[in-house]
Design a protein that fits this description.
heterodimer; A: alpha+beta; three-stranded antiparallel sheet; disordered N terminus; B: mainly alpha; two-stranded antiparallel sheet; 1,2-phenylacetyl-CoA epoxidase, subunit B (chain A)
């Protein structure tokens, strides 16, 4: 069955499970683009490719069709180590209560110029 | 980032804490990211919406690609090729976003090929003349932009980010379409007639792209409560009618709907009745071009099989070569 609106809001249900994929899927790569000299590479998105060379070429076609970049990185998604989202509080709690790490903590010098 | 969800599901504590954080993030109008806990229905609904959107971009390449050889000048061919390439890109951004919810891209492709997944009904209408390419850019891409701009703020991070990228590129699509119609409108009488005929045929289908009327749109309320959708189908449709009612004047042509008017009392644009029976027929696979589009998509997938196999074999061989070189050293 085909059809439906671009918003996906046509009252249809999610697709049912299809037959299992026989071919080994191509690995996933994360793409980082440096938009101009002097700036960092920034994550742009991801893509599938069989190897690093193809990943780089596909990244060029997919993420820099309008001069968006002067340099590209592709990284196997599996090589990225991430922090655990459910351990957020323990992992990121150390700056809590340490306002003195910010310049705004020091208010007595207000009115003194160039400080 | 397209990483599978790492959060453990099923344990009552994790689910309760997860639901609470999810609800808080939605109330704050913040964003949900791939590795966050999310309700199963939210994941399922987004997977359906984003993959359907991706399929629409991919199928949408067909009606326009058919016109590349017949585009009237080298410049128009180059523009149309760039547009078709953009549609492929949009499909891939969206497949990536959908994948972060846990469904592999190959599975989504299989569902499309097997006819289990949907795509926008608009691509099941035939593209009869060069003016249709103009009308598609102006009306179909115009309606898509109207739909998609609010989706840039969708609560699911990867979807919103994909939509930002897509919206930037879509505005070229709409303008190039309008320019095609403008050139025809300033041409001979036959060219003006051709432009008007294209508008007459694409007007109603493009209005139906916003989906069924609000009282017949079962997913809308939940989708709005989750901050995926920001405006109702009818609200967006009415806005779109207001935009094109003005724009058509610049063409010196008209919309094929005598009921289009601005209602001063409601502050909304109104339009004549739409044929929702036809919409349902096209949805059910009985539109003018459903079979043709699906057949072409299958054919392209099958014809590309050897390329995918060759690329995988080459990658394997290179990897083995690298491994044995390491052993030798």
């Amino acid at each position: 069955m085909t059809g439906g609106s671009t918003t996906g809001d046509d009252g249809s249900t999610a697709p049912a499970a299809g037959p299992a994929e026989k071919r080994q899927p191509w690995p996933l790569w994360e793409v980082f683009v440096r938009s101009s000299r002097g700036l960092s590479h920034v994550h742009a998105g991801s893509l599938h490719a069989p190897d690093a060379d193809m990943a780089l070429r596909n990244a060029r076609d997919l993420y820099t069709r309008r001069n968006e970049g002067v340099s590209l990185w592709v990284v196997p998604s599996s090589a990225i180590i991430t922090s655990d989202p459910s351990a957020k509080e323990q992992f990121f709690e150390s700056p809590q209560g340490k306002d003195y790490r910010h310049a705004t903590y020091y208010s007595k010098s207000e009115g003194v110029k160039h400080l | 980032m397209a990483a599978p969800a790492a959060t453990q599901y099923g344990s009552p504590d994790v689910d309760a804490a997860g639901q609470q954080l999810f609800d808080e993030l939605i109330i704050q109008d913040s964003r949900i990211e791939p590795r966050d806990w999310m309700p199963e229905a939210y994941r399922k609904s987004l997977t359906r919406q984003i993959s359907q959107h991706a399929h629409s971009e991919i199928i949408g390449m067909q009606p326009e690609a058919n016109w590349i050889t017949r585009a009237p000048s080298l410049k128009r061919k180059a523009i149309l090729m760039a547009k078709v390439q953009d549609e492929a890109g949009h499909g891939l951004y969206l497949y990536s976003a959908a994948e972060t919810l846990g469904t592999p891209r190959d599975k989504m492709t299989e569902d499309l090929i097997a006819g289990k997944a949907r795509y926008s009904s608009i691509f099941n209408y035939p593209v009869l003349t060069w003016a249709d390419i103009g009308a598609i850019g102006w009306l179909v891409d115009g309606a898509a932009i109207c739909n998609q701009v609010p989706l840039c703020r969708a609560s699911y991070g990867p979807y919103g980010r994909a939509m930002v990228r897509i919206c930037k590129e879509e505005s070229f699509h709409q303008r190039q379409g309008f320019e095609i119609l403008l050139e025809l409108a300033n041409g001979t009488q036959a060219q003006r007639d051709m432009a008007q005929d294209a508008i007459n045929r694409w007007y109603a289908p493009s209005l139906m792209m916003f989906g069924p009327p609000d009282d017949d749109s079962p997913n809308s309320n939940q989708s709005m409560a989750w901050n995926i959708k920001r405006f109702s189908n009818d609200e967006l449709r009415s806005r779109f009618v207001g935009m094109i009612a003005e724009q058509v004047k610049a063409l010196g042509l008209s919309l094929p709907d005598p009921d289009v008017r601005f209602n001063e009392d409601t502050g909304k644009w109104e339009y004549g009745p739409l044929d929702w029976e036809e919409f349902k027929e096209v949805l059910a696979g009985r539109g003018p071009c459903n079979a043709q589009r699906m057949e072409r998509r299958r054919e392209a997938h099958e014809d590309g099989a050897w390329v995918r196999e060759a690329a995988a074999a080459y990658a394997d061989k290179q990897a083995r070569g690298a491994a044995s070189a390491t052993e030798a050293a």
